[in-house]
Amino acid sequence: MTYSFELGPIRPPSESSSLLIRATRNCPWNRCKFCPNYKGEKFQIRSVAEIKQDILSARFIADRITELSSAANTRSGRFWHLNDIDSQSFQHVALWLRGGGSTAFLQDANSLIMKTAGLVEVISFLKQTFPALDRITSYARSETAARKSLEELKELHQAGLSRLHIGLESGYDPILQFIDKGVTTADNIAGGKKVVASGISLCEYVVLGLGGREMGQEHARQTAMVLNEIDPDYIRVRTLAINNRMPLCAEVANGNLIRATDEEIIIQERLMLEDLTCHSHFVSDHITNLLQDMEGKLPEDKEKMLSCIDRFLALPPAEKTNFEVGRRTGIYHTLDDLNNARRHEAAEQAVYQLRNGSKEPDEKIIFALMEAFV
Hints:
single chain, two-stranded antiparallel sheet, about 45% helix
């Protein structure tokens, strides 16, 4: 018998150290134009028995790693000769243990769609099997949360569900319709508020630049309005990145979406931040974000975050270009890196190579640099 368990394709960056347990396969909606994941794949809800067997396999692997690490005094860490453990599962559990072994994430795109009784059983079993877990989280859709009763969500929280990650994307209905999100602003507010009322921590995701140039201001202002209504624990922003695996790529090609530049997106982000009156942690932790290090608690850190944006906007045009190219090529991580002479020169060389006879690198080149990381 080989001990292994299913691993889905994605999880939030904040769950990079979490044990991944696959409760559902793929996405029940799977039509969002900005999302490349799960396309062409069938959605399935796994049986509770299957999920519990995966949890037991993860426990077995964790125990074997602990035993062998102790026996070898962790000198070599080479346990790949084990015939009864699948190497991918082994590696995942080993990295999870190395990261502290205290959090778990239920995959894939919307585990909340499971029947409440079954999901409660899975969460309870996960907690019993791994008593050291102090956080269990999952992706969800706001309309799924809205369909659950408050009592059901409270039951899930009591069982051990700590946090839900929900893709708000935008608070502007015409954008939600354009990207075929399958939810309305009313759904987002109803689902989000119900999660907050249940005691489950809520993380809402916003896609910067999703309104392009035409709907950018409405995207910023209306998204702030919705977030203020929900008042989630976390707001995490991602910058729109497009590749040919996304249906949105065709909308750009046919001119239905005119993409906003980095600077235009930062201006839109400032509008949104300016209007936020909620009490959320604002996090810009994604590789696609130009100002990735901008983070703070609202409302007390709002001015600090606005100052970070204003610092970028106040740069001379050549320095803005230098920073954009430096960020998009991995030379820079923060605005402070502009003061590093070695990195600044490396970014300047990258700008020079990308000019291709023009005064500044074309915005399409900047997009391509960003999307190389996605």
